[in-house]
Target: FAD/FMN-containing dehydrogenase
Amino acid sequence: MPDDQPLPLLDRLSALLGPRGILTDPADLEPHLADWRLLYRGRTPCVLRPANTAELAEAVKLCAAAGVPLVPQGGNTSMVGGGVPDEGGRQVVVSLARLNRVRDIDPLDMTMTAEAGVVLKAAQDVAAEAGCLFPLSLGAEGTATIGGVLSTNAGGNTTVRYGNARELMLGLEVVLPDGQIWNGLRRLRKDNTGYALRHLFVGAEGTLGFITAAVLRLYARPKESEVALCAMRDEETALALFRRFRDRDETAVRAFEYMSGTGVGFYARLIEGGSVPLSTPAEHYVLVDLASTRPDAGLRPLLEAVLEEALEAGEVLDAAIGESEAQRAAIWRIREEHPEAQKREGASVKNDVSVPVSRTPELIRRASEACRRLIPGVRPVPFGHMGDGNIHMNLQQPEGMDPAAFLARSHDIMETVNEIVRDLGGSFSAEHGIGRLKTDMMEGWRGGPELAVMQRIKRAIDPQGLMNPGKVLP
Model:
């Protein structure tokens, strides 16, 4: 503990949490000090690992009395450095990994009450065992936790059908900055009783309080599904294909993902067992995922009819339909391994942006061209959720360029992309959040009354500024 912190605080925390509830050995601290992208590396005197909400509340009270800042951490999969301490060595990391129980599941109510440390994939599996579906799905679902995905309002692959994490949450339990526990674990679809406090904490990235449990919405499990990989003529025809499916049966579209030929090429070359079930490489691809809870939904005829129309129109160049669950999973793997393939290829600058769905082709085209002008040889790797307007407008370093030199241009690259996003009426942060990476953009994008209200809310709820300081707000 730094000299300006009283040593008895560490002793009191140790007594409260027990030997499993606090880490101080440097080797044990190491996994908690850096983010997944290795953008930031901080220091901490200890990592707290409370076993339940009551322990966390008491630990927060002790730290609040001592003026010690706290940084919540779930699966540590943040793309914007939202879950790591700063370099000062004073911020205490709070891991919610031991709050990992599913407290309740009700297949009639179609709700699940899960603690913050429950891994997303585990929540999906528990729902499946009960004959239900928890539809939130993203690449890091084997590591990301319920508390983390709610704190960042994660989106993922099925937003076009089910919405973001916010839309899948009915109630919350939260430890407030003074250590009080707010129990808002209500399973109600309708509850119009004043301010909807639960929505303050979703997307706040732990800056207002720590989510410890949530009531989640469940859905009926699909009884029929189809997945296809399509090579497209260009960005415009990719969106045209989405419109064809939406117009034919909007309720059938579970996901609609765009991928560039460059990104698919990285996957085929760098991921073990990576293969693309199409004979000729293309510059543009889409993944179409259809699902229905009706066993007689006729998804295969629908899929084939729409693809045939698009093939005859010259929009689709080639297509492969998954004939089994294994083949459908293999097609999805092409999309899910994009971040890992980019990581293996070298340095990349990631832009998690959104625009109105109708403007996604223009975003991909204009941003790619602008970044090529900015840095000759740069390789655009746009991919993501075309069906909801969220494109990860990522840029890979030019071949042969020093990675550090490329990353030094990150601000220029993000500004170049964001200028186009702003012109198209979009957002500079679609689903990854603000974290530490994008706080300097908040004034330019959300300045004036909007940012002022956010700052007043922060001061009102966390007057000492101890909850995940340096994140979200400039």
